[in-house]
Amino acid sequence: MSPSRSILLVGEGNFSFSASMSQLHGVTATCLQHQEETLRQEGAARNIQIIKDSGGTVLFEVDCTKLGECASLQGRVFDRVVFNFPHCGRKSGVKKNRQLLKNFFLSCVQVLAEDGEVHVSLCNGQGGTPVDQPKREWHNSWQVAAMAAEAHLILTDVHPFESEKYQNYKCTGYRSQDKGFHVENALLHVFMRSLPYSLAQTLKVEEAVEGDRVHYNIPAELSDYIFREFLSSGSVHPVKLVQDFLLEGLKEKGLVSMTTKTLPFLLKAKQLQTCCHGIESTHCYWIHLLQKDLNSDAHTSTDKEKDQLKSLDSRGRTDTRNTVSATCEKVDSVAERLRFACSLDVDPEEESGLYVLRPSLCPQMEELLTRKEVMTNSAGSCGTTEGNNRSVEDEGNKEEDPCGSCNGVTSSLFGISGLVFRNVPVNLWDLPVFHELLLRGVFPSECEPIKLLGQRFETLLAPYGVSLVTEQECLRLTAHPMGLVGQVFASSPTDNMSHDSVTVSLNLDLLAVLLFSLPDWRVLWSHDPRFSEQFAIRPLPGTSFHSFSLFPELFSFDISFWTGPSWEEKKFYAMVREACCGTVEQVKLIDMFSHPDLSQTSYCYRLIYHSHTHALSHTQALQFHKHLESLLSSRLQVTIR
After folding, report:
1. C-alpha distance from residue 606 to each of 522, 587, 588, 590, 633 (Å)
2. Among 88, 86, 89, 62, which Cα is nearest to 73's?
3. Section 292-313 average pLDDT
4. What's the pLDDT band for 411 if we cut at 50, 70, 90?
5. 10, 111, 224, 532: which one has the fewest Cβ atoms less than 10 Å from its Cβ?
6. Prediction pTM value
7. Is residue 638 a contact partner of residue 632, using CB atoms and an 8 Å limit?
8. What is the Cα gyration radius of the chain?
9. For 144-184, what is each residue's pLDDT tens digit?
10. In what order do the strands lie in the sheet with 57-59?
11. Percentage of residues in the chain with pLDDT exceeding 70?
């Protein structure tokens, strides 16, 4: 901290700590006692004079739980507020001291700068965090992080209280006596403001879907996940870093072309019939259109239809060389085989009026590979470059590819990535939104491409805990504790029986959690700069993330209600996500009862509230819970019990 920054010290006794600190910083030191009572303490008069001589201020009769009412502090804000070894006095219990902490935190935020810090020193064991050794039982601690959360503060750091740095410091006030606290192994807790919660809102989106311009609303519980651009060029978000890491690892052995074409979130229902591997229709977000403009001119220009393909060299850089003729012929050959492998066989009239938020990128991959202009762009127009439409062979590809160039065919993967949406229950590792990386390639059957791609992913990801499990024609990538993080599976059969079409689907969000040791997938969506600044230097996979909100408290509330025969559980999950701002990490059904005479069923769910990105207090969690009850009553017409 810069010496010029202002510091407020509260609850001082003999002012020895303030006197030591005043040599380095400008301080305002306060105490609760009258001046006469304070001066009776040993060394107090000398310490007060040191503070004043250093340009500091000393104030008496200042209640640290009512700082906003102190006339001498009106209009002032401080970069640091310090409270050393708070205590209610005499033989008070943990409950009274918890209340003291809570009231202090609520008070100090009134005089704290926006980026300021609150420092609270406690004796070993009092704080109730895992850093306390030995750790007390939670109910017997002061629960300092939970008390700070009541004032929307998060615990950002805990480290030893370095009393030796303040040579003249003499701790007093133990049980209201001129007696010191046990400062050996004491801990300093540092708090900062939490960002406010982002309230759910309904977003109106306009997109072109198969030539029609459609207007629709994004469900409110998904509003904070839309248009975040984590995968944009130049992004250093963890999901982008993971994608770059994977593509670079694959490019060491072969050609990978990623499209940068903007693809709509919305699909027609018929597009799901043959394309979405292992996805249940019940896990889809079905959308009702607000407006549909037929025969729009959104796709009249073929130039607007062209993909922007980019190919990275083995060092991850965009290759800007002109496409050579040999590469064009090779990519064109691969693209043609992909096109035939991905032909759709659907009834164009069936389900033509239903729309869904894409649960996978597979349908759009299929369409991209069947369109002639995509194939032309992928081949680089055989030597003609246009804008960013290129596909080039890596220098590193001169060596043998994963399939050993069987029959002269070099492996090549075509890829897309973006958001996908799953209407799933609220569980810790069930993601309603995530970034999917989808790769597709056609390889000679004799090369056993699924096995060979699996070996490559094992090389890349096994050091981070990813295991490969073979199931029939599918290779599953799993990790603890999240489970499935990706799949390699056979796609639609090709016209050429000697070749296999293979698809790779990877969950970039779960892989980012794994590769950067994040505590929770929801951290990826944080707006807090304390999250993003850790990735500004593009850390390598395996670099552990340092949580900016330590030891957040977990709260559990039950909710019970009567429902009618039209009850849909997925609507309940949507209400939970919307009303609670994403703070509920798990919902468990703990009881259900159907009335024998009435067409009603009673449900009881247990909700676990937990946040690694925001201050979540018992009060705030209860407010979310009450808001949920209100939404359920008004929108789903349930009767709260």
Report:
1. 20, 6, 5, 7, 18
2. 62
3. 47
4. low
5. 532
6. 0.85
7. yes
8. 31
9. 999 999 999 999 999 999 887 877 777 765 444 555 567 88
10. 57-59, 26-30, 6-10, 78-84, 112-122, 187-193, 153-160
11. 80
Whether 520 and 612 have beta carbons less than 8 Å apart is answered as: yes
499: left (phi over 0), alpha (psi -120 to 50) or beta: beta
- Which amino acid is it at 451? K
Place of tokens 């502090």: 73
Structure-block tokens of residue 259: 């499209």
DSSP H or E segment with residue 405: none
Share of the chain above pLDDT 90, in %: 62
Instruction: Find the helix or strand (DSSP H, E) in which 421 lies.
Output: strand 412-421
471, 462 in Cβ contact below 8 A? no
Token duo for residue 512: 């980012």
279: Cβ contacts below 8 Å, ≥ 6 apart: 272, 359, 360, 422
User: H helices within 299-442, ranges in order?
Assistant: 302-305, 325-341, 362-370, 372-378
> Nearest-CA neighbor of 32 among 58, 10, 6, 4?
10
Q: How confident is the model at residue 91 (pLDDT cuts 50, 70, 90)?
A: confident
Question: In sequence order, what E strands does 554-624 have?
Answer: 555-563, 584-594, 601-609
**DSSP symbol at 27:** E
Contacts of 50 (CB under 8 A, 6+ apart): 19, 22
Task: With a cut of 70, say whether residue 306 has pLDDT above it.
Answer: no
CA nearest to 468, candidates 486, 482, 481 = 486
* Tens digits of residue pLDDT in 333-379: 433 433 333 333 333 444 446 899 999 999 999 888 887 444 444 44
Three-state secondary-structure class, residue 178: coil
Q: What are phi and psi of 640, to 5 degrees?
A: -70, 135
